Amino acid sequence: MRGLNNNNPLNIRHSADHWQGARTEQTDPSFVQFESLAYGYRAVWKILDTYCLRFRRERIAYNVCNIIHRWAPPSENDTRAYIRHVLTLTGLGGNENIPRPYRNREFYRLERTVLLIAAMTCVENGIRMEQVDMQAIWDGYDLAYPGKRKDDRPSEDLTAYDEYWDWSPQAYKPA
User: Fold this and answer.
1) Is the per-residue pLDDT at 103 higher than 60?
2) Is residue 133 packed enough to be buried (19+ CB in 10 Å), middle (13-18) or exposed (0-12)?
3) Alpha-carbon separation of residue 129 from 66, 105, 116, 120 (angstroms)
4) Integer Cα distance of 71 and 44 in angstroms
């Protein structure tokens, strides 16, 4: 619950980054404290977008397993248990590609990332999915990418081209 108390649901550590919405006074020695939960989720969206760009440059698949492996490295966490818990909560496949948040604004493409973020919130804070503030996740997206989200439901063509589906992803391989 420390993350939720800090409005930092995924426990982003202090770094050289100056996060928008960070509290002026930081009293937690390890983790950033945000003014609101929406700003905490904004930071998550920005970090995930950065991961996507770096993974693409390194020709690594932007999928659940690789994202969590980077977020919660084995040197600090039981990464395999983290991944199993997230996959159980979301119903997503570990090697299922996740669309890049900024490029894929349509509701149906963002749903997978929202589920991922919600499940990671559960793992980081020891809560159940129904306790996650889903609106705060969406509000965080809107803060990260103002005016970008489209709330319309899926179009008839669900096979629309996604720029990240055409490169050769490397599957996650546990150490």
Assistant:
1) no
2) middle
3) 22, 23, 11, 10
4) 10
